[in-house]
């Protein structure tokens, strides 16, 4: 439990470092989309950190950034192709934000700040830490947005073609009207702001 | 003998901020009374609603006032960590009940109380306290609350008619009616269904509870302007600009003097101009700045009313111009010392006005000429697939955004409509709740008499137009 | 457009009785100050002085400070001046003989040349008695076409100028006519508030003899006595910095009387009328006192203070300074002492109601200056140096903020 809190409060890329916000705001309209995006980013982060730190001594200073971006975009394209084949609804739901993972500040940022200067195993651990932090953050936001904005929690819907399991929980019955503010991007920004405020306010106590 | 040593003038005028707030409240009293009279007493005596549920407008006002007061006290106590006594003292001096009161007066009468509370809470906290408290806010807090309500719970703002009016009239507010007519209509269809322009003036038309009685708002404005409580230049320039612009547009599309009068007397224009746009903290201080503020508000309101699907433009334009207040003040200061340069803003505004008016006139005239085939340019058939006696039409139809649908027709009768893309329709859940597609298909022979779903008129009309277009295509 | 505000004058308080003559004090404390510039002392303890002896000098203008009494210099001490500060002063013990340095009586006071006139004003230390204490000879160095005599007295509570006009209207008119002839001025105007019957009736008795002196009633608003408002209201002219640009000289009516003394008797003015007024004093009245008198001794002889939390103000309540004690000495430019009680407790935030912008006579935006007080670049665009410190912005503010203090602070910041 303490470890989970650490991921949330200490250098969490979304709440503390405020990186990679555009994907957080855009794809969190359902819970399922958010945690799937978190898992995708986690996988890409770990593999890209591993690869970047492998070749860190060979690549020269001037062409670092284009080389890293090539690595990251290759990984993203691979994931795109896999998702396109196995779960078209999810691929459509992500839309443009799946290719935009290439310029997600977390991945490029960790690659430049950590993986290009540290050993392989440490880089994998760092990628894992940031990725889990991102996964927890984006899942919380997706959960809250869908709960307040739609009155449902989608555990699994779009990727049911792989898992064969479909579950959408309707939390409120029809008499409670959901608050459409949270389905708009403005509402997502407000929710993100409130959470950043709460987390940073409590950071000293953890 | 010890004397007090202090700076500055040693006599001060009698007026203070609390007296200013009291005067604004006095100007609002007739409006509150009329709101309660119109929506409570008339409803109770002429319909079968119980007295307690007819008192709903009174409860709305009380909720708005109390929630804004309480949320401000809570903010002072828990976030700014002041003692309870100090919080009460601070709340007394800041104009804390005015945002809640104004918000409850611009809402229609059927809004549930918890929505009013939500709006008042968000308006006070986000619109006022987060910006630094009283005297530091950038946006009008009542309008921020209204914005939150209209984004979160838009469906609940849909029907502004109280029970008495639903018996007497059917339909929407005058401005929504005008929008659905394509901004053009003869006197009888635009004004006539509500009475005459005198009804608009005294306030026996449907609308939000506080903004219908223009007579009482005018009386309040005269009282506030004579006692020099509000910045009177802003409402006068705002309303004059709207009047002149709609007069030119009315002349351009061939309607008489009643058209600009209708525009000035309908919707929240007078209430917004007198009580919302003149909020002292969020409006310019220089005189030229105030005039520019009023003119810009007028131009933006007319643009929103005619060029966008929103029927009213007042709240949005006031919020937008609140952002530009420092710019107007800067121009006002500069022009104080270099008055010759006033021709620069005059030329800019003239160009804006000419472009806007010409665009609107040409738009309205175009849609006027297309009434013969009024469905034609709203629905397009992109693909037709024939499969035996079954034909499938792939159509796009203009709703709030654009709807894409696949229509299956067998023996000149629509069998099914599958909507493939409805991302632009923000109120689609209403359509689904009412099972409207089923109704459209069942009533396809008599589609013109089918009512639209309240709260999503545009999406309903889009579906109806699809039926009309496809059937007319089949009959060829 | 003449901007200002109508303020309740409260002048009836001190007009009910005639003026009391206190012009024979035992000691005078002559402050060594002129127009807020310190002057050097030219006498030592024990020196015998007569009325008109030079006891100090303002170096940069070669402008003298003259003794108002005859007697012996007993001390060089400090005294409380009307700006609230302790300034050096010459303490003279009055031998009550009123001996003058040189006894002169001129028949036709218009028989001076312009150069003699300017030199005489400088020698007799004539200063602006309306509050500025500016050496008057400097204003007459340039050529002028019009003279405006300021008998407006727009500050509430003050009645000293009115009483002077009531008693000496004939001499004042003679002086104005002489100034007109000496300086080749085309026309002279006497400006006074249109509801001020005392001044109007006092002048109407004698003004028929002078066809080039015109009575000009002006609107009853504060601050009508400001030079710029007078020039605009009486002559409909506007200028940038000084009235001399458009050929106008503006003088207070008490200064005109001081010029009369200089022209007729070729000596300095030694006494003036001071109004003691306000709700905090039991006997509001006008008194005739010598320059250098300690006002506290006079106040004790007339009446008592009444009420709590009193303020003792040198000057009027709008532009005067509140002092911590009542031992103020009379200088040429002290027109009144006002004693009122401090009752204001209300305080709130600025709501940008723009009342200060609507009322400022210098057409500034005090609220914007207050909000930008830390940003010198923005302040320069708002021109705080044009402020006259009339105090209307703080008077009218509904949140009772000290707006004028911010503008004065901004003036200092912009000057650097």
What does this structure look like?
The complex is a heterotrimer of chains A (206), B (476) and C (416). With 206 residues, chain A is mainly alpha-helical. In chain A, 64% of the residues lie in helices and 4% in strands. Chain A has a two-stranded antiparallel sheet with strand order 1-2. Chain B folds into 3 domains: 155 residues, no CATH class; 174 residues, no CATH class; 96 residues. The longest helix of chain B has 30 residues. Chain B starts with 16 loop residues before the first helix and ends with a helix. Among the domains of chain C are: 152 residues, Rossmann fold (3-Layer(aba) Sandwich), CATH 3.40.50.11540; 61 residues, no CATH class. Chain C contains 11 helices and 19 strands. The longest helix of chain C has 24 residues. At the B-C interface, helix 1 and helix 18 of B face strand 17, helix 7 and helix 10 of C.
Task: Write the SSE topology.
The complex is a heterotrimer of chains A (206), B (476) and C (416).
Chain A: H1 2-9, H2 21-26, H3 31-54, H4 64-86, H5 88-94, H6 105-115, H7 120-150, E1 152-156, H8 160-163, E2 167-170, H9 185-202
Antiparallel strand pairs in A: 1-2
Helix pairs in contact in A: 3-4, 3-6, 3-7, 4-5, 4-6, 6-7
Chain B: H1 17-46, H2 51-54, H3 56-79, H4 84-93, H5 97-105, H6 113-129, H7 141-152, H8 163-168, H9 174-180, H10 187-190, H11 197-202, H12 214-226, H13 233-253, H14 258-265, H15 269-276, H16 287-307, H17 314-323, H18 325-337, H19 343-369, E1 379-387, E2 390-398, E3 402-410, E4 413-421, H20 428-433, H21 436-442, H22 457-474
Antiparallel strand pairs in B: 1-2, 2-3, 3-4
Helix pairs in contact in B: 1-3, 1-12, 3-4, 3-5, 3-6, 5-6, 5-7, 6-7, 7-17, 12-15, 13-14, 13-15, 13-16, 13-19, 16-17, 16-18, 16-19, 21-22
Chain C: E1 20-21, E2 27-31, E3 33-34, E4 37-38, E5 40-41, E6 48-49, E7 54-58, E8 63-66, E9 71-80, E10 86-94, H1 114-123, E11 146-150, H2 160-183, E12 187-193, H3 197-204, E13 213-218, H4 227-235, E14 248-252, H5 253-265, E15 271-277, E16 285-290, H6 295-302, E17 310-314, E18 321-323, E19 336-341, H7 355-359, H8 366-371, H9 376-382, H10 392-396, H11 403-415
Parallel strand pairs in C: 1-16, 11-12, 11-14, 12-13, 15-19
Antiparallel strand pairs in C: 2-10, 3-4, 5-7, 6-9, 7-8, 9-10, 15-16, 17-18, 17-19
Helix pairs in contact in C: 2-3, 2-5
């Amino acid at each position: 439990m303490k470890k989970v809190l650490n991921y949330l409060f200490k250098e969490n890329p979304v709440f503390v470092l405020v990186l990679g916000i555009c994907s957080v705001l855009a794809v969190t309209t359902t819970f399922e989309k958010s945690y799937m995006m978190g898992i995708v980013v986690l996988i890409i982060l770990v593999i890209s950190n591993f690869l970047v730190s492998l070749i860190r001594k060979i690549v020269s200073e001037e062409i670092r950034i284009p080389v890293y971006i090539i690595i990251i975009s290759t990984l993203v394209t691979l994931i795109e192709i896999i998702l396109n084949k196995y779960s078209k609804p999810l691929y459509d739901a992500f839309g443009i934000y799946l290719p935009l993972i290439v310029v997600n500040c977390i991945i490029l940022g960790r690659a430049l700040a950590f993986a290009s200067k540290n050993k392989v195993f440490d880089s994998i651990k760092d990628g894992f830490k940031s990725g889990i932090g991102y996964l927890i953050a984006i899942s919380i936001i997706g959960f809250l947005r869908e709960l307040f904005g739609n009155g449902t929690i989608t555990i699994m819907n779009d990727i049911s073609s792989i898992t064969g399991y479909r579950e959408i929980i309707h939390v409120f019955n029809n008499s409670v009207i959901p608050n459409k503010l949270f389905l708009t991007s403005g509402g997502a920004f407000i929710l993100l702001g409130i959470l950043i405020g709460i987390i940073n306010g409590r950071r000293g106590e953890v | 003998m010890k004397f007090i040593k202090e700076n500055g003038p040693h006599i001060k005028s009698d007026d203070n901020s609390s007296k200013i707030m009291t005067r604004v409240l006095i100007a609002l009293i007739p409006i509150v009374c009329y709101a309660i009279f119109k929506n409570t007493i008339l409803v109770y005596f002429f319909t079968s609603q119980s007295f307690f549920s007819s008192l709903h407008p009174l409860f709305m006002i009380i909720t708005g006032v109390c929630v804004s007061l309480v949320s401000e006290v809570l903010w002072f106590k828990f976030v700014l960590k002041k003692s309870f006594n100090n919080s009460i003292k601070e709340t007394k001096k800041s104009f804390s009940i005015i945002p809640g009161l104004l918000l409850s007066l611009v809402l229609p009468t059927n809004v549930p109380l918890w929505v009013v509370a939500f709006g008042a809470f968000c308006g006070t906290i986000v619109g006022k306290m987060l910006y630094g408290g009283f005297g530091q806010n950038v946006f009008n807090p009542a309008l921020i609350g209204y914005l939150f309500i209209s984004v979160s719970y838009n469906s609940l703002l849909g029907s502004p008619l109280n029970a008495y009016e639903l018996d007497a009239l059917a339909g929407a507010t005058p401005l929504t009616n005008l929008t659905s007519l394509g901004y053009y209509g003869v006197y009888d269809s635009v004004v006539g269904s509500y009475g005459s322009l005198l009804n608009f003036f005294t306030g026996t038309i449907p609308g939000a509870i506080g903004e219908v009685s223009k007579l009482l708002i005018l009386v309040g404005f005269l009282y506030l302007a004579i006692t020099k409580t509000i910045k009177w230049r802003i409402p006068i320039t705002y309303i004059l600009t709207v009047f002149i612009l709609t007069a030119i547009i009315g002349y351009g599309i061939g309607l008489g003097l009643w058209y600009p009068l209708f525009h000035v007397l309908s919707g929240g224009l007078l209430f917004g101009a007198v009580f919302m746009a003149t909020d002292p903290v969020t409006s310019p201080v220089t005189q030229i700045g105030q005039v520019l503020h009023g003119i810009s508000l007028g131009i933006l309101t007319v643009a929103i009313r005619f060029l966008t699907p929103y029927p009213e433009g007042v709240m949005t334009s006031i919020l937008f111009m609140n952002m530009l207040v420092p710019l107007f003040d800067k121009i006002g200061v500069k022009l104080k010392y270099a008055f010759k340069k006033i021709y620069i803003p005059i030329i800019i505004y003239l160009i804006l006005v000419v472009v806007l008016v010409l665009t609107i006139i040409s738009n309205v005239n175009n849609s006027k000429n297309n009434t013969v085939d009024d469905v034609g340019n709203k629905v397009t058939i992109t693909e037709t697939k024939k499969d035996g006696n079954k034909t499938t039409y792939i159509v796009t139809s203009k709703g709030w955004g654009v709807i894409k649908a696949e229509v299956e027709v067998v023996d000149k009768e629509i069998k099914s409509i599958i909507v493939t893309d409805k991302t632009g329709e923000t109120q689609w859940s209403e359509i689904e709740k009412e099972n409207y597609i089923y109704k459209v298909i069942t009533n396809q022979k008599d589609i013109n008499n089918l009512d639209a779903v309240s709260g999503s008129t545009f999406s309903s009309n889009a579906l109806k137009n699809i039926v009309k277009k496809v059937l007319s295509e089949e009959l060829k | 457009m003449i901007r200002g505000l109508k303020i309740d004058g409260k002048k009836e308080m001190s007009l009910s009785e005639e003026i009391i003559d206190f012009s024979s004090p035992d000691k005078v404390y002559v402050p060594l100050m002129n127009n807020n510039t310190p002057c050097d002392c030219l006498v030592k303890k024990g020196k015998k002085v007569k009325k008109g002896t030079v006891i100090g000098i303002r170096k940069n203008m070669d402008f003298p400070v003259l003794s108002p009494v005859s007697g012996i210099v007993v001390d060089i001490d400090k005294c409380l001046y009307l700006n609230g500060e302790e300034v050096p002063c010459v303490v003279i013990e009055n031998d009550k003989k009123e001996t003058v340095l040189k006894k002169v009586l001129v028949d036709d006071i218009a028989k001076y040349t312009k150069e003699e006139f300017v030199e005489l004003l400088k020698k007799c230390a004539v200063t602006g008695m309306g509050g500025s204490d500016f050496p008057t000879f400097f204003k007459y160095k340039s050529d002028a076409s019009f003279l405006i005599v300021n008998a407006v007295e727009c500050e509430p509570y003050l009645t000293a100028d009115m009483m002077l006009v009531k008693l000496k209207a004939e001499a004042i008119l003679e002086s104005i006519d002489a100034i007109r002839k000496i300086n080749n001025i085309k026309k002279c105007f006497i400006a006074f508030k249109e509801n001020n019957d005392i001044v109007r009736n006092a002048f109407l008795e004698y003004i028929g003899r002078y066809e080039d002196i015109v009575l000009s009633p002006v609107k009853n608003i504060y601050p009508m006595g400001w030079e710029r408002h007078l020039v605009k209201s009486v002559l409909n002219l506007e200028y940038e910095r000084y009235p001399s640009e458009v050929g106008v000289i503006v003088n207070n009516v008490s200064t005109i009387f001081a010029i009369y003394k200089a022209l007729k008797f070729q000596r300095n003015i030694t006494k003036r009328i001071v109004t003691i007024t306000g709700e905090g004093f039991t006997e509001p009245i006008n008194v005739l006192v010598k320059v250098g008198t300690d006002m506290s001794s006079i106040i004790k002889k007339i009446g008592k203070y009444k009420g709590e939390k009193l303020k003792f103000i040198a000057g009027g309540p709008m532009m005067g300074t509140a002092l911590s004690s009542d031992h103020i000495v009379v200088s040429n430019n002290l027109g009144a002492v006002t004693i009122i009680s401090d009752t204001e407790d209300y305080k709130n935030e600025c709501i940008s109601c723009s009342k200060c912008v609507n009322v400022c006579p210098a057409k500034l935006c005090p609220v914007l200056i207050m909000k930008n007080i830390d940003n010198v670049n923005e302040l320069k665009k708002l021109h705080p140096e044009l402020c006259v410190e009339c105090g209307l912005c703080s008077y009218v503010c509904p949140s009772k903020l000290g707006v004028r203090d911010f503008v004065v602070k901004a003036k200092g910041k912009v000057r650097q």
